[in-house]
C-alpha cells in the first residue's frame, strides 16, 4: 500500500511523524492527520514538456479559476482560513501527475501552500465559511 498524501510506500512514509510537513499543514487547519492509503503510487517522472504545458494552462486561466473558486468556496485559505495572500494550489501536484483543471485546484494561503509542497491533500471539504 502507498500513502495517499506523499505517494511513498506505507512502510517508508514519514507523513505521520509529529514534525512532518503533513502534521504541520494539518495543525494550521486545526486537524490531525489521518492515515490514508492508496492501492497505487502517484505517477513518477512527469516529463518536463507536460509540466510546462500544465503551467502554461494554469497561467492562461488563473484569474478565471481564482474567481470561480473564490465564489464557490470563499476567498480565504481552505486549510487555515487566512484571508490574505491566497493563491491557487493543485490538489494533486503537477509533479505527481496532477493536471491544471478546475477540479484539481483549491485556494490556499501562501504559507499553507509552501508547507503542503508536493503532498496531495484536498482541503476544499474543510473550507472555512466567511
Identify the quaternary structure here: single chain
C-alpha Rg, in Å?
15 Å
In DSSP terms (H or I, runs of 4 or more residues), the helix count works out at 3
Sheet having the most strands: 2 strands, antiparallel
CATH architecture: Orthogonal Bundle
Kindly report the CATH topology: DNA Binding (I), subunit A
Number of strands: 4
What is the average of the pLDDT values?
Answer: 90
Biggest sheet strand line-up: 1-2
Describe the structure.
The chain is α+β, with helices and mostly antiparallel strands. It has one domain (2-126): Orthogonal Bundle (DNA Binding (I), subunit A), CATH 1.10.30.50. Helices cover 32% and strands 11% of the residues. The strands form 2 sheets. Strands 1-2 form a two-stranded antiparallel sheet. The protein is globular, with a radius of gyration of 15 Å.
Reconstruct the topology from this structure.
Layout: E1 2-3, H1 21-28, E2 37-38, H2 48-73, E3 86-90, E4 105-109, H3 110-116
Antiparallel strand pairs: 1-2, 3-4
Quick structural summary:
The chain has 130 residues and is an alpha+beta fold. 32% of the residues lie in helices and 11% in strands. It has three helices and four strands.
Key structural traits:
130 residues; alpha+beta; DNA Binding (I), subunit A; two-stranded antiparallel sheet
